[in-house]
Design brief:
78% of the residues lie in helices and 1% in strands. It is an all-alpha fold and 337 residues long. It has one domain: NCX, central ion-binding region (A middle domain of Talin 1, Up-down Bundle), CATH 1.20.1420. The protein has a two-stranded antiparallel ribbon. The model has no long low-confidence stretch (mean pLDDT 83). This is Sodium/calcium exchanger membrane region. Residues 6-162, 196-333 form the Sodium/calcium exchanger membrane region domain. It is found in: Membrane. GO terms for molecular function: calcium channel activity; calcium, potassium:sodium antiporter activity.
């Protein structure tokens, strides 16, 4: 019973946090004069991806700073780093597609996604390059100086992406006029906007951690292997924020923000955390890690080709990401059991 309560509290916290976060981040982007690409792919994406990325970075750096060699910490860090972009490129795409399908009656565009193809296409293209580099480095033994070069390339690559994204996309449409935190205020001060943004992000992070705890407790009660939890259920919990943010934006027909929130997080997760992993771990990818990378690249590649060939995205096309995720679940279960 206590585990069920944990699940309910965690989900309520994440959903409410996502609702308040999307409301505040749009208003903040409007106040700063940012476009859709910057708000969705940078502010929202990095804001929700940074906390879970720090978990992986801390798992890697803690033994390095303490002087203790921890193979377990390295494995946890590598799994978390690779698991995040994999989940986003597969399951998150599926959730975006399902959201378009479920809300089709209240969306002017129906099941078709009305996105800025240049912005989203660039996001997915950058991701395919960066994540392929991450996989390639994990297949061969590199001397430290080459690892430093790879890390710098990834860091500068993300910097280049940020520079291009800041001024990309159309202007924000139908920006909320009032904060959910101050529903009666006609014009909320900037400090209040920043406060709601940070506070809601904190609620999202807390909800995600509660969800992970609930998953672990449920697994213990059911007698499931810890490895299965680490590979499948825990990453699912930590990626919930991006998914719920996108669901709210899909409901409102703001498809560039919804999809950019996912694709922007994919790029961040495949560059900055990977740079730390390459530098401070052996970065030798296990077969299951490589399987996840291949599936993520295949799912992302399908979205990229669809955009380049037709310039359109539809709900059913994005829902194919669920098949890639299901394939990984089957492979993970076989590998663990």
């Amino acid at each position: 019973m206590s585990t069920v309560i944990e699940f309910v509290v965690a989900l309520v916290a994440i959903i409410l946090g996502a609702a308040f976060f999307t409301n505040a981040i749009e208003i903040l982007g409007g106040r700063l004069g940012l476009r859709q690409g910057a708000v969705g792919s940078l502010l929202a994406a990095v804001g929700t991806a940074l906390p879970e990325s720090m978990i992986a970075v801390v798992a890697i750096l803690e033994p390095v700073l303490s002087g203790e060699v921890s193979e377990e910490g390295a494995l946890i860090g590598i799994g978390a780093i690779l698991g995040a972009p994999f989940m986003l490129a597969t399951l998150a795409m599926f959730v975006v597609g399902v959201s378009a399908l479920l809300f089709r009656r209240r969306r002017d565009q129906g099941t078709r996604l009305r996105v800025d193809t240049a912005t989203v296409g660039r996001d997915v293209g950058f991701f395919l390059v960066f994540f392929a580099v991450a996989a390639g480095v994990g297949l061969v033994e590199l001397p430290m100086y080459l690892k430093v070069v790879v890390a710098l390339v990834l860091a500068f690559g993300y910097g280049l992406y940020v520079r291009r994204t800041l001024f990309s996309g159309e202007h924000l449409e139908e920006v909320p006029k009032r904060l959910l935190f101050l529903p009666r205020a006609q014009h909320s001060p900037l400090l209040a906007v920043v406060f709601q943004t940070l506070a809601s992000l904190g609620v999202i992070v807390a909800g995600a951690h509660f969800f992970v705890d609930a998953v672990e407790h449920a697994a213990e009660g059911l007698g499931l292997p810890a490895g299965l939890i680490a590979l499948i259920l825990a990453p699912l919990a930590t990626e919930l924020p991006e998914k719920f943010n996108s669901v709210f934006w899909m409901r409102d027909g703001k498809d560039t923000l919804a999809l950019g929130n996912v694709t922007g997080a994919m790029i961040f997760q495949s560059t900055v955390p990977v740079a730390f992993g390459v530098l401070f771990t052996p970065w030798n990818l296990a077969p299951l890690d490589l399987f996840a990378v291949v599936l993520a690249l295949a799912s992302g590649g399908l979205v990229y080709l669809t955009l380049r060939l037709s310039g359109k995205l539809r709900a059913r096309g994005l829902m194919l990401g669920g098949l890639f995720y299901a394939a990984f679940v089957v492979g993970a279960v076989i590998a663990v059991l």
